[in-house]
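Hey, resending since the last one bounced:
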Amino acid sequence: MSYAKAKASLQRAREIEQSSTGMMLEYKRKLSAELSQIESDRRLTEEGKQEVKAEAKQKYAIEFLQKTHTMRQKYVANIKKTIQEAEKVIYTPPRKPDATKLGRFEDAFRSLKTELMFATSQKSAFDKLRGFIEKLDDPYLAKLVRDDFAELTTKVLATPGDGNSQKGTGAAAVTTSVRRELGEMYDGLMRPFQSEDFRGASEVLEIAQMLVEDSRIHRSVIVNSAAEETFGADYARYINDTDSFFVKHPEYTPEPFVDEEGDRIRQTEEDLAWIYKDDENPTLSVRTGKAAE
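The structure tokens again:
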């Protein structure tokens, strides 16, 4: 399912990022070994050694930047796939219930709106709305209420009252703002119907969105310092900005990374096990929470 795909893509991106230190150490070791060989070559003059060492540094620096460039493209591609797959889970609308259940809800919802208009106190209006929401047992119906919440809130707040609501009784009683209570009610409307996959996809999406805004592979100060020590400042400054380096030196630009999956994330049979078409409703739907039971 798409959450598993999103999680796997994020893991691949993280693995690329985590390989940064090992990659730097590998290049540092290889260059060090080659510089040692050059230093011990008796056929070269001191001037010749310095020239060959500079060529070796340049060779490895460019190789490092080329590999980094391709790795970053893979990194970004996996982050984008993470976002696409996570959004499939989060933004697929819930399944429409059968006509009988929907009809009963619509009748009850119209009655609620009328009752709110004629409520004699803000507290009674608030309690009517809260009681109605507590009985919701379907994500599609909860979303309909959520979509109309601005109108419902206006009705409640327009009813005479002091703007306060009381939670609990006796010593445990807490007075709070009705407006705040309504905000919490709105935020929690869909929560009972959110599956583990939904919550997981939300977490993965939040991480991926942060990473796509800062797509550096070489984040460690140690790696950045090692790059300057190994290749010199003229190359090290480009390890997180390879695009700029290859704009200046297009002759060294590596072949672009081609994602085998491409930009199109296709729905598989596994996806269709939970995203499907309702025969009575052509809207794509998702089995979540109580609706899946």
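The chain is about 65% helix and 5% strand.

Sorry for the duplicate.
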